Amino acid sequence: MQTNLKKSTLYNGDIINGVPVITQLNLDDLVAGKIYRFMFKGADMNIGQSWYVPVIIAKGVNAGAKLLLNTGIHGDELNGSRVIQQLFATLDPNQLSGTIMGVLQACPNSLMHISKNWYLSTDGGDYVNMNRTFPGKLDGDSAHQHAYLLWNNLWLNNVDYAIDLHSQSTDTIYPLFVFADYRNPICQRMAELIPADQIKNDEGEKGTLETTFIEHNIPAITIELGAARIYQSDYIARSIEGIHNILIEFRITQGECEHNAHKHTSFVGNEMLSIRAKVGGYAEILVQLGDEVSAEQIVARQLNPFGDIICQYTSPIAGKVLSLGTGATREAGGLLVRILFNK
Fold first, then answer.
1. pLDDT category of residue 1 using cuts at 50, 70 and 90
2. Which of 130, 143, 210, 293 is 20 to 30 A (C-alpha) from 45?
3. Residue 259: CATH number of its domain
4. Where would I find the beta strands (DSSP E) of 186-232?
5. For the packed helices 233-249 and 185-192, what is the interaxial angle rounded to 10 degrees?
């Protein structure tokens, strides 16, 4: 739940590339009918400098719901940044009833390394998946501290609904895919306003941003857009279309929802199964995203350097291909094929 104790927006006096730095945000402090750009001061580096997160806010001329669009928790997942950039380029705050906050590069450490993980420099180095750390720890490592600052100083009391934008990790790919906890009817409605290829009715995972918001009674979904490290125009465009539907649903903007999950015939499943490499070798994937597979169908195989088949993989269940490993080499444990199905 959100706290009744609201903090004021705090400017520390710094300017980065012409953009003011804030250490704390209260949307109520901002004048309505304007678009704002800030750099939010996050955790400190080992060299005594800080990580900064770009934030863009469209505060409507009329009061209304507050929607968060977040991306960049995983630094190799970039499609979501273009969604926010393109969406905000079309927003007119004089036509909004409510506020839209876009957070880009939520995990700047990971983005700098083009990696899923936050790099720790302490004691020779280590790695943290920041999307398992929320709501963070003030007395934790720098990744947990950064998560704590985002949660407590940027998002708390400033968000009514949240969308976390991701993609698959490097050397893997999703279609346009949504995680949503259907136990919450608002989350289900948000998911089904996205013209996604596939949706997983998912109870969430502790420490993720989506689940943490839901635990605090703030409806949230995660949108996965395709592959890492690239921009994919179809997935970006359909995500923007779905977000526009959500803005209309929550009466932040006006219009009609024309293209949604129902019209796109999105496949909804409640379980997924990952088929992973058992050995190291060259990977040959024998199915495509969205393919229907049957139980015992051969979906992948691995070859040794001479081209001999050393391992063959079948799907133990029937379902739809949700994700693929795209890298031509795979060591043991690497993703080959992921299947979405209903149990």
1. very low
2. 210
3. 3.40.630.10
4. 198-201, 220-227
5. 130
- 241 and 280 in a single domain? The answer is no
Are 30 and 159 part of one and the same domain?
yes
Q: What percent of the chain is predicted at pLDDT more than 70?
A: 99
pTM of the full predicted structure? 0.97
Domain that holds residue 317: 271-341
- Return the closest-CA partner of residue 150 out of 239, 255, 307, 24: 24
Tokens of 49: 């400098």
Q: Which amino acid is at 162?
A: A
Q: Which of 233, 318, 338, 230 lies closest to 275 in space, CA to CA?
A: 338
Is 299 among the domain residues? yes
The CATH number of the domain holding residue 315 is 2.40.50.100
In this structure, are 210 and 318 located in the same domain? no
pLDDT of residue 2: 56
Least confident of 1-15, 233-247, 280-294, 301-315: 1-15
Measured CA distances, 146 to 68, 108, 142, 152, 154 (Å) = 18, 10, 6, 10, 11
Structural domain includes residue 5:
no
Buried b (16+ CB within 10 A) or exposed e, 282-310: ebebebebeeebeeebebbbbbeeeeeee
Q: Tell me, what amino acid is at 314?
A: T
